[in-house]
Design a protein that fits this description.
By secondary structure, the chain is of the alpha/beta class. The chain folds into 2 domains: 5-113 and 183-200 and 265-305, Rossmann fold, CATH 3.40.50.300; 119-180, Histone, subunit A. It has 13 helices and 6 strands. The chain has helices at residues 16-26, 74-90, 102-109, 119-128, 134-144, 146-151, 157-170, 174-180, 198-212, 217-222, 236-243, 249-274, 287-297; strands at residues 5-9, 29-33, 60-61, 94-98, 189-195, 278-281. α4 packs across α7 (157-170) and α5 runs parallel beside α7 (157-170). The longest helix is centred in the C-terminal third of the chain and has 26 residues, at 249-274.
């Protein structure tokens, strides 16, 4: 009998990484990345990616496996993660998905379908809008599909065009088509949510940003190609503005803190409405409570017995 998936979600900086490693050690698990930006190489500091020593020997999957120049979307992630889940379960291990990109996690676990468009259709839409700037394209997308626009960066021209293409080919927005799907879970899952009071979480976010600047984050951003997927990562544009003399270092930091706090708010709103999550307050060191909750939900053989 296959072990259920453990899915650990929560806002940025809440403490998902460390707790997931401890759970994996206890539950004979392997960790799968559930963050859209951590699939890329070269964004280690910017995305607060787990360090090798922090993994404590636990296998981690779908981290840093793509060059920053490669296009990658939720449909690609869906294919990759489902293969990883199967591989891990075939080894009689527990897949533990950890991250804060709710759309990616939902597409992985639910019956989301992504309809492929023919290559000539892609070429037609590219030609039609070749004279539009990125901002003009994004403004048009906002008019026809405001929900998709909320999760896309204006400079991600390929994905913005893709959302426009879906609308013009079907007469419906991409977000509307996704919402029409039945959203049935394909796996036996236990959703664990980690939370903190807003004030404490915001302080953690502020501290994390300060710690990032104690590391060579500016050099990391300097070495990233322009017009790359990195432009979607919080902090990239703010550091570029600093490098171009558009703001001071302190203003740069404050903008990153602000953008991250805003993202935290969007994360929590999305997660609370999309998943059946059992929430745990991180102020109370909830590891034992989480472990006992999982044990209570299903019959389990932990690593000490395997």
């Amino acid at each position: 009998m296959k072990k259920p998936l453990i899915v650990i979600v929560g806002p940025t900086a809440v403490g998902k990484t460390h707790l997931s490693v401890q759970l994996a050690k206890k539950l004979n698990g392997e960790i799968i990345n559930g963050d859209a930006m951590q699939v890329y190489q070269g964004l280690d500091i910017l995305t607060a990616k787990i360090k090798k020593e922090e993994m404590e020997g636990v296998p981690h999957h779908l981290f840093s496996f793509l060059p920053i120049s490669q296009d990658y979307n939720v449909a690609d992630y869906q294919k990759n993660i489902r293969l990883k889940i199967k591989e891990i379960q075939n080894r009689n291990k527990t897949p533990i998905i950890v991250g804060g990109t709710g759309l990616y996690i939902k597409a992985a676990l639910y019956d989301y379908e992504f309809k492929e468009q023919k290559e000539n259709q892609h070429q037609e839409i590219q030609k039609k809008y070749q004279d539009f700037t990125n901002q003009q394209l994004f403004d048009y997308l906002t008019q026809i599909d405001a929900e998709s626009a909320k999760i896309l960066h204006p400079n991600n021209r390929r994905r913005v065009l893709r959302a426009i293409e879906i609308y013009e080919n079907t007469g419906e927005s991409k977000s509307s088509l996704l919402n029409q799907q039945k959203h049935h879970l394909l796996y036996d899952c236990i959703f664990i949510g980690l939370t903190l009071p807003v004030e404490e979480l915001n302080q953690r976010i502020n501290n994390r940003v300060e710690e990032m600047f104690l590391q060579p984050i500016i050099e990391e951003v300097k070495n990233l190609p322009t017009q790359s997927t990195a432009s979607k990562a919080i902090g990239y544009q703010q550091i570029q503005d600093y490098l171009q003399g558009k703001c001071s270092l302190e203003e740069c930091k404050e903008q990153i803190k602000l953008k991250t706090r805003q993202y935290r708010k969007r994360q929590m709103t999305w997660l609370k409405h999309q998943f059946d999550v059992h929430w745990f307050d991180m102020r109370h060191n909830p590891f034992n409570d989480i472990y006992n909750y999982i044990k209570g939900v299903c019959s389990w053989n932990d690593s000490s017995k395997s």
